[in-house]
């Protein structure tokens, strides 16, 4: 999506049609291999010494099928699916705030078992056998979480479930157990896209868009990254064309006043990092990469690679600038709070499912929680 940012000291564009509006942008062809090169397990081994510590876990076809299934089942040690509890202690309702009720509703999705009905024991045993159960994967996840200090950040080959953070009790991607991870993966449109439409923008050698035959990666992998409380203000996206760094953009679309005072230092550190660590070592000449600079500005971490393609967010740049510039553009920051208010917030259109926004219209938190609970219960029947 094009940026709505207007660089400082640049006059507004006239309303009349411009060449940029009539001439299509020509990107390097996005082939299957170029997309594969940005898959986490493709680049991490070569760059792990200055990236965040991570574990790559291959996923079974059974688990991929579980992720693709319509219903939301959270596997547990008993193999029984989780559902929102219908226990209702109405005597305590008056003493619990609306927000506490809503948080309690979210936390109910993490419960690991549900008592079976003694009147239908045989039926329950048949149902349990058909529900997802991944003890080996859960054990490996538990070992990795323990190794990484009790908190991890999950993603698949390319995407993290950032659009589903609303469903987590922390409103972040910080996960403490397998149930946290499975719930985020099952709730994310980004994850669903990786599993079914990852290659839809790719082209074959002929350059014909959409001519590739793959729908999903041959190997689906779960990546668990050690959790750090990163400062969003210190995340930056870098754009590389023909193996040359041509642009650096602030990653978080929020105005941070202190950044302007250290702009030159930040730009110098990122350029040095690229030339020493990245340039010539990634297999493609055109790509983007994200970095994080620590608060004391003494260390830079490589976070991720993405294709140099229109599907990648150009943030504070226009893609036309990045495609046509003959030299590196200055580090771009939001110049003011007003500019930040005009930027589209990430996932504004897909952060919450339409069912949730429909149910929440004009309701208190408690009313929304009750309606959402009934909706989930109805869909589980």
From TrEMBL:
Signal peptide: none annotated. GO terms for cellular component: cytoplasm. InterPro entries: CDC123. Residues 1-24, 106-128 are annotated as: Disordered. Residues 10-21 have a biased composition (Polar residues). It holds the Pfam family D123. Residues 116-128 have a biased composition (Acidic residues). Belongs to the CDC123 family. This is Cell division cycle protein 123.
């Amino acid at each position: 999506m094009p940026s709505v940012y207007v660089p400082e000291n640049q006059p507004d564009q006239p309303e009349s049609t411009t060449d940029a509006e009539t001439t299509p942008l020509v990107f390097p062809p996005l082939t299957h291999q170029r997309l594969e090169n940005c898959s986490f397990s493709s680049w991490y081994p070569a760059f792990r010494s200055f990236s965040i510590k991570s574990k790559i876990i291959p996923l079974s076809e059974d688990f991929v099928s579980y992720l693709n299934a319509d219903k939301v089942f959270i596997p547990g040690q008993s193999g029984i699916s989780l559902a929102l509890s219908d226990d209702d202690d109405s005597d305590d309702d008056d003493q619990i705030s609306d927000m506490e009720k809503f948080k309690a509703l979210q936390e109910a999705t993490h419960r690991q078992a549900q008592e079976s009905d003694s009147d239908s024991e045989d039926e329950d045993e048949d149902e349990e056998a058909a529900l997802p159960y991944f003890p080996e994967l859960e054990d490996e996840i538990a070992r990795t979480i323990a190794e990484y200090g009790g908190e991890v950040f999950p993603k698949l080959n390319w995407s993290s479930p950032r659009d589903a953070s609303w469903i987590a009790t922390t409103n972040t991607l910080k996960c403490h157990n397998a149930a946290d991870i499975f719930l985020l993966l099952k709730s994310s449109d980004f994850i669903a896209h990786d599993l079914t439409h990852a290659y839809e923008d790719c082209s074959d050698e002929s350059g014909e868009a959409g001519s590739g035959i793959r729908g999903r990666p041959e190997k689906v992998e779960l990546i668990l990254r050690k959790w750090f409380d990163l400062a969003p203000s210190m995340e930056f996206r870098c754009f590389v064309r023909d193996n040359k760094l041509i642009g650096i953009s602030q990653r978080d679309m929020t105005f941070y006043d202190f950044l302007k005072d250290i702009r030159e230092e930040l730009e110098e550190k990122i350029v040095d990092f690229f030339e020493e660590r990245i340039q010539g070592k990634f297999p493609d000449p055109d790509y983007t990469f994200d970095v994080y600079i620590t608060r004391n500005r003494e260390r830079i971490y490589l976070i991720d690679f993405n294709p140099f393609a229109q599907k990648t967010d150009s943030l504070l740049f226009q893609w036309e600038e990045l495609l046509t510039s003959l030299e590196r553009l200055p580090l771009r920051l939001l110049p003011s709070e007003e500019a930040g208010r005009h930027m589209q917030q990430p996932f504004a259109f897909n952060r919450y499912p339409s069912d949730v926004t429909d149910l929440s219209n004009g309701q208190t938190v408690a009313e929304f929680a009750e309606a959402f609970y009934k909706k989930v219960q109805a869909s589980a029947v």
